[in-house]
Design brief:
heterotrimer, A mainly alpha (288), B alpha/beta (395), C mainly alpha (347), B: 395 residues, alpha/beta, Rossmann fold, 5-stranded parallel β-sheet, 13 helices, 14 strands, globular, C: 347 residues, mainly alpha, 76% helix, ABC transporter substrate-binding protein (chain B), amino-acid transport (chain B), Leu-bd (chain B)
């Protein structure tokens, strides 16, 4: 009984943290810029590939590969934002959807050409490849690291958004963009920075979570539904909402798989329907 | 009026993309190859396509003046309606003499009536549900059936004194369930039973929760079947990160679990995994060594042929064989008849088509993953010779 | 006429909205784009029928996609209800005729079509009540979640649906007892074409009716429509149900013409694809949806034959170019082309 509960909680948390790290940036960009970026997952996959290449082909340590994933993907995000995404702010939502899907398709083809269609796994440091014991149950240490990373990123984001000037500007712009601009916030730069930050964190999530959501060219398409669910259930423009949503979904999903594998996927969708009917704007939604 | 003529012109251009002119040469055969080349299972289709093309390029002159043209189409994955339409178009538009390929069983089932209606031989290069050959008298299968590769492994497992309890884990769709049943029946024949089994969702990104449950149950062996080898790395990582090997749970499975193109990604976690299969890239024969060499010359040293590649290769061999045997008097019925009696030495070993079922008869090898010259290989150590599909034998 | 005036005044007060273009377009004679596409499609269909024997099958696929796209455009483009789960109705329609044929021996095609429409409409009524309580992203996710649930149910219910193996053993009787479905796809082509023409006719009538205009009004300004006495919730639900029925009919056509049903008809990626098609053609314009369906299906077919491994890339490139250079979709391009020609002629 206790073993089962511990197992569900532990693996549910690990899954939840991966979902959170990848999705939180999506929620922020959707909340702040009103840009529906369905290609968000492709940025996460790109981060995964950076970690794979760094650890396997270049032989760099994992701890160097992770920041590299963040930086590379954030830069890529900034470039994409400056070149094209910017022209679509305020555009019809369907055009945004169409454009980001187009981006996703091209990314899938690009990843396939560069890395082949098979899934890739990064090299995990020896220190994290063992087991840790919780009570009388052993768990993979890497997943404990994933959980810690998720909490750390939540804390970092909370500090950044809640305690710095940049965060203040972001919050102001989410609440009322016109007002923020009127009092002198440079939203152009702010949007680029936010987009880069959001995609960068996703890249980090792709790398950290490769153990749970495997890196394949179609990553961004296969898991898109999960990321959208986290954002929709959590609420747009919030950093705590997606955290809570990811927790719900991660734990419910693992519990379903562990206890009633035959009905695996029913649970997630059941929870999503229930929450959205009760709170259409999501748990922490500023607006829907 | 310029407007109307413009529109007319555009309409014509859109609608009348002319069909390719038929080659006038009397002995130019066409083979329509339908495989999945995009989406999550793209690697599988790529293997079959490469295998088929390799056979073509190595046997260019094998048919004298006759030529065989391959027309490749992407059915995008398990999408029976797409596969069916492509097959139909290959028949009516491209006028192919043979349909071939097919990764997924539902796609094969959807195409089967087309083959029957058009009297076109349909050479299946993967789709492995045992009953598929019954869907049309024009189907010939050169790949494998699930019971065929599973039952020998179960028989082997039953003989192992240190395997007293077996847990099975399969993907929850028809082939997985077929594998689960075949394994249980093979074990039962030898007087042992499966202690517990779990079916995981087909789209299952994370195996860890399932394997954690296996670990709690502490079986001696875990039998696994996964679709065509796209999730094996994830499974192996989960097996390793939970320390199942250290906990004394041996991993055995259908060959997809240790498929060669994924082995390098799996790392040492895969060492010691025992699988039953019909083809190993490291199968010890001159023919296979030449095959692998030709493959890597064509597709680069990083690419290794897997059972899918061999399926494509042998499928083309069967088609060429039928063409050769018929000496210009090629009809659909005659070609199926020729293939029913076809046998050959393949890179995987001796193979033949069972004239009664049009299904393949071949050796099934029990292999163990070992490190040879610094690389992971499936090393064969026991052979079940000329295995017929037990699925059909039982019925 | 007061209805039109009213809506026109509403939409005119929201300049820039893609939506209002239809009605302003009417006033300014921009239905030329619609007409051009109608003529083009008609001629294309005729040419395919006469000379394109090898393309009849693809033609029926295009017609089916058009009906499906139309059903989504009515929802997304006209009523402003977003959906990422419309495959649920398409798939339900397909499974309805499939199951009716394989298990109950109901092989008559026309009544099967009707049955599929009714069953899909029923599900539309049930889920519509819930979906319409939300808006925006929440709505999108809710439609997706419902569709995914149904997908899982179909996957589980193997004895009925055949699960991942697909539903086998369905037979469809000749249409009207006369026209059997042939391997060349002639019957399939004409049959789907006939249904398409009927559906387009109905849709055009509907969107021009006061009812259709009230939908646009709701999309543009819900509060105002409520204020002038429209029962907004009721209108939205009715269009939701109607759209579901149309999608069900499209799915039924696919099942009947391919005589096979696989789980992919319920899959999320189909819901996404059809939304792409509507956006590509130009949302809110029926003829745009039809054009989008034609271009997308043809491109996909040709690209995947020319470059089976990387056709995704070219499709993505095409979509990106359209988004960046044709903000109003393909039909926007047609409009622009026509106005250029028009200017030249009048010079």
């Amino acid at each position: 009984m206790i073993t089962a509960a511990l197992t569900i909680l532990f693996h549910g948390l690990a899954f939840a943290m991966v979902l959170y790290i990848v999705s939180v940036g999506l929620g922020i960009t959707m909340g702040l810029m009103n840009f529906a970026n369905l290609a968000h997952g492709a940025f996460a996959a790109a981060g995964g590939y950076v970690v794979v290449v760094a650890t396997r082909s270049l032989g760099l340590p994992f701890w160097v590969a992770l920041p590299a994933a963040f930086v590379v993907v954030a830069l890529a995000g900034a470039v994409v934002e400056r070149l094209v995404v910017r022209t679509l702010y305020g555009a019809d939502e369907l055009r945004q959807v169409l454009f980001s899907i187009a981006l996703l398709f091209m990314a899938i083809a690009g990843f396939t050409a560069a890395f082949g269609p098979l899934q890739q796994q990064p090299e995990i440091p020896a220190a994290l490849s063992g087991q840790i014991a919780l009570g009388d149950v052993e768990f993979p240490s890497y997943r404990a690291f994933v959980i810690a990373a998720g909490v750390a990123i939540l804390a970092a984001l909370w500090l950044l958004i809640g305690r710095t000037r940049i965060g203040m500007r972001i919050r102001a712009a989410v609440d009322n963009r016109n007002m923020a601009e009127a009092i002198g916030v440079d939203t152009r730069t702010l949007f680029t920075l936010t987009f880069a930050l959001g995609t960068g964190i996703a890249g980090l999530g792709g790398g950290i979570g490769a153990d749970i959501l495997s890196i394949t060219p179609t990553y961004g398409q296969e898991y898109l539904v999960l990321f959208l669910i986290v954002v929709a259930v959590g609420g747009l423009g919030s950093i705590f909402g997606p955290f809570l949503a990811a927790l719900c979904i991660g734990v419910v999903d693992v519990a379903g798989k562990y206890l009633l594998p035959e009905f695996g996927a029913f649970f997630i969708y059941g929870v999503v329907i229930a929450i959205l009917l009760a709170k259409p704007a999501g748990l922490f939604g500023v607006r829907s | 009026m310029s407007l109307r003529s413009l529109m007319l012109g555009t309409a014509m251009a859109t609608a009348a993309i002319l069909p390719l002119a038929d080659g006038a040469a009397a002995k130019a055969y066409k083979v329509g190859l339908v495989v999945s080349l995009s989406g999550p299972t793209a690697s599988l289709g790529q293997q079959i396509e490469r295998g088929a093309k390799l056979y073509q390029s190595l046997h260019k002159n094998g048919l004298g003046d006759d030529t065989v043209e391959l027309i490749v189409r992407d059915d995008t994955g398990p999408a029976p309606d797409v596969a069916k339409r492509l097959a139909q178009e290959l028949v009516v538009r491209d006028k192919v003499d043979v349909l071939a390929g097919i990764i997924f069983t539902p796609n094969a089932n959807a195409i089967a009536p087309i083959a029957t209606q058009a009297k076109v031989p349909f050479v299946i290069m993967n789709a492995a549900s045992w009953a598929t050959t019954k869907a049309s008298p024009y189907i010939v299968r050169v790949s494998q059936t699930l019971p065929q590769i599973t039952v020998p492994l179960a028989q082997w497992a039953a003989k192992q004194p240190d395997i007293k309890s077996v847990y099975t884990l399969v993907s929850d769709y028809a082939p997985g369930i077929e594998a689960e049943e075949a394994f249980a029946s093979g074990l039962k024949e030898a007087g042992k039973t499966v202690t517990a089994s779990v079916r995981v969702p087909v789209q299952s990104p994370d195996f860890v929760p399932f394997l954690q449950k296996v670990k709690d149950a502490k079986p001696d062996a875990l039998y696994v079947f996964l679709p065509g080898g796209t999730q094996s790395t994830a499974l192996m990582k989960a097996y390793q990160s939970l320390g199942l090997k250290e906990a004394g749970v041996r991993l055995i499975g259908s060959g997809e679990v240790a498929v060669e193109d994924e082995l390098p990604n799996m790392g040492d976690a895969a060492l010691g995994v025992v699988t039953g299969f019909h083809y190993s890239t490291s199968h010890d024969s001159k023919l296979n060594a030449d095959f692998v060499k030709a493959w890597q010359a064509a597709y680069g040293a990083d690419s290794v042929p897997t059972f899918m590649g061999v399926g494509g290769y042998d499928g083309m061999a069967a088609i060429h064989g039928a063409i050769k045997a018929l000496k210009g008097k090629f009809t659909g019925e005659a070609a199926v008849e020729a293939m029913r009696h076809w046998s050959a030495e393949s890179p995987r070993g001796p193979i033949a088509i069972d004239p009664d079922t049009r299904d393949i008869v071949q050796n099934i090898y029990i292999r163990r993953v070992e490190k040879v010259d610094g690389a992971l290989r499936n090393v064969e150590f026991e052979t079940f010779a000329a295995v017929k599909d037990p699925g059909k034998a039982a019925k | 006429m007061s209805g039109i005036e009213r809506v026109k005044s509403i939409s005119a007060s929201y300049p820039g909205a893609a939506a209002s273009s239809t009605w302003r377009g009417l006033a300014m004679g921009r239905t030329g784009g619609d007409l051009a596409i109608a003529v083009l499609l008609g001629l294309g269909a005729l040419a395919t029928l006469l000379f394109g024997e090898a393309y009849w099958l693809l033609g029926s696929q295009v017609a089916i996609t058009m009906i499906f796209a139309l059903s989504v455009d009515l929802l997304v483009g006209f009523a402003g209800i977003v959906t990422l789960g419309h495959a649920v109705f398409f798939g339900l329609g397909a499974y309805t005729v499939g199951i009716a044929s394989a298990h109950l021996g109901w092989t008559e095609p026309l009544s099967g079509l009707l049955l599929a429409g009714v069953v899909a409409a029923l599900l539309g009524a049930v889920t519509g009540v819930l979906v319409l309580r939300t808006r925006g992203l929440g709505q999108l996710m809710l439609t997706m979640a419902f569709a995914s649930l149904v997908y899982e149910i179909a996957n589980r219910a193997k004895p009925v649906t055949g699960g991942a193996d697909g539903l086998q053993g369905m037979v469809i009787a000749p249409i009207l007892g006369l026209f059997e479905f042939d391997i060349f796809g002639l019957t399939a082509f004409l049959y789907t074409l006939a249904v398409l023409v009927a559906v387009v006719g109905l849709a055009v009538l509907m969107t021009r009716s006061p009812y259709g205009r009230s939908l646009v009004g709701i999309r543009e300004n819900r509060v105002r429509m409520q204020a002038i006495g429209t029962n907004v919730q009721h209108r939205l639900l009715s269009i939701y149900v109607m759209s579901a029925a149309l999608a069900g009919i499209a799915g039924a056509l696919l099942a009947q013409t391919s005589q096979f049903v696989g789980l992919n008809v319920l899959h999320f990626s189909l819901s996404g694809e059809i939304l792409i098609i509507v956006a590509l053609g130009g949302a809110g314009r029926l003829w745009g949806a039809l054009l989008g369906a034609l271009v997308f299906t043809l491109f996909k077919d040709r690209l995947s034959a020319l470059d089976p491994a990387y056709w995704y890339f070219w499709l993505g490139l095409l979509l990106a170019v359209i988004v960046l250079f044709a903000p109003k979709g393909l039909i926007g391009l047609v409009d622009r082309l026509l106005s250029i020609l028009h200017r030249k002629e009048s010079l």
